[in-house]
Design brief:
Blueprint (H helix, E strand, L loop, with lengths): L3 E4 L2 E4 L2 E2 H8 L3 E5 H14 L5 E6 L6 H9 L3 E4 L2 H9 L7 E3 L6 H10 L3 E4 L2 H13 L4 E8 L21 E2 L3 H10 L3 E7 L10 H19 L6 E3 L16 H11 L6 E4 L3 H4 L3 E12 L4 E5 L8 H5 L5 E3 L9 E6 L8 E8 L6 E4 L20 E6 L2 E6 L4 H4 L8
Parallel strand pairs: 4-20, 5-6, 5-13, 6-7, 7-8, 8-9, 9-10, 9-11, 11-12, 12-13, 15-17
Antiparallel strand pairs: 1-2, 2-3, 4-14, 14-15, 14-19, 16-19, 17-18, 20-21
Helix pairs in contact: 2-9, 5-6
Amino acid sequence: MPTLAQAKDGLRLEAVPLRQIAEQYGTPTYVYSRAALEAAYRSYTDALAGRDSLVCFAVKANSNLAVLDVFARLGAGFDIVSGGEMARVLAAGGRADRIVFSGVGKTVAELRDALVAGIRCFNVESPTEIDRLNEVAGSLGKRAPIALRVNPNVDPKTHPYISTGLRDNKFGVAFADALALYRRAAALPNLHVSGIACHIGSQLLDGAPVTEAAEKVLGLVRQLESEGIHLEHIDLGGGLGIRYANEVPPKVADYLAPLLACFAGRKEQLCFEPGRSLVGNAGLLLTRVEFLKHGETKNFAIVDAAMNDLARPALYDAYHDMVAVAPGTDTPEQVYEIVGPICESGDFLGHDRKLAIAAGDLLAIQSAGAYGMVMSSNYNTRPRAAEVMVDGDQVHLVRARETVQSLFAGESRLP
C-alpha cells in the first residue's frame, strides 16, 4: 500500500497531508501515489530482468490519463478491452505498437481503428471474431497480428465474478478447439498468427493455478510448432492479487518465478497484463463523515462517498480497510456501518468498522486504486469524484470533479 505516515496534521500520503487535499479539492476524491505506481511497475520489470518480456498494464483497472502517463513513461505496454481505452492510451502518450486488444465483443469500428493505429496484437476470443478481423483487415489492405486467447479450464480460486478461465466463462476459445482454430487462422490471407494468450482470473492469491494454465499453454505451443506455426510471443495474462485486509499475496518475483521456469530456454517474448497489482494499493478514496446515526441495533457513519463512487463493496461484498485521517483523541471508538447517501439499502462501503470518528472527520478508504473510479456512476445524479496524483510534496489535479450541470448537458426537454 502507499505509505501513509502519521503527522501532527493527520495522515500524509508521501509528503502531502490528506487534510490539505480535502480542503483544496473537496470530497469524495480519489488520491493516487506516483511513487507507489512506479514501485509496483518496477517490481515486474525487475523480476523479468534478462528475459525478453513486455508488461502491459490492464487499462480497465484504472484508465485515468495521468496513471497511464506514469506507466507510458516507464515503457509499459497496455492491455485494452475497448476502442475508448485505446484512445485514452494514445492520448496519454502510450505507444500503439505496445497495445494488446482483448475482449469478447470488438466491433468492426474498433477493429478498424486499432488496425489503422497499428496496435501490437489482437487477442481473439471467438471463431467468428477470426472471420470479422480477417475481413476488416482485408478491406484496409493490412494483415492483422493475432493471438488466440485460450481458455484452459483452470480454477483460479477467486471470486466467481472475476474468474475468467473456466469452461463456462464467456472469455476465450475452448482449449480443445484451439489447435483447429490456429490452423484456420494461419490459412487466412489477412491474418498474421503472432502469439497465444491466456488469462484465468483476477485477485489471485495462489500462483499454482496460473502455473497449471501456463503448462497447458506450453503444450499447445509445442503442438503448433510441430505443425509449422511458430509464435512470437506468449501472453500469460495478469490477475495477481493485492492485500485488502489480511490476504498475503505472493511477491511479484515469487509469482513469476515458476512461469519463467516453465518457459526457460524458449525464444518467445513473454507478456503479462497486470492491473490490480499495479494500481490497487497505489490509491485511496478520501471521504468525509456527514452524520453519525445511532440506531437500535447498529450505528451508522454516513459519509459523502457512496456506492456510485466505489461499487466494489456493493457489487462483490468487497472489503476495503478504512482509517481516520486524524483520529479524535477525545472520541471513543465505536463500531459503525459505513454507508453513503444513495437511496439503496445496498449502499455501503464497509461493515462493522471500529473507528473513533465524529461528524466532519475524514476517512481514507484504502486499496481503492483499482476498479474504483473506472466503475463509478452518476446514480442519484451524483457528480463523480475528483482524482488527484501525489508526487512527493506536490499534488496534481488529474480529473476535475463533475458538476451537476455537466451530467445533463447532453440532454434536452421535449419541444
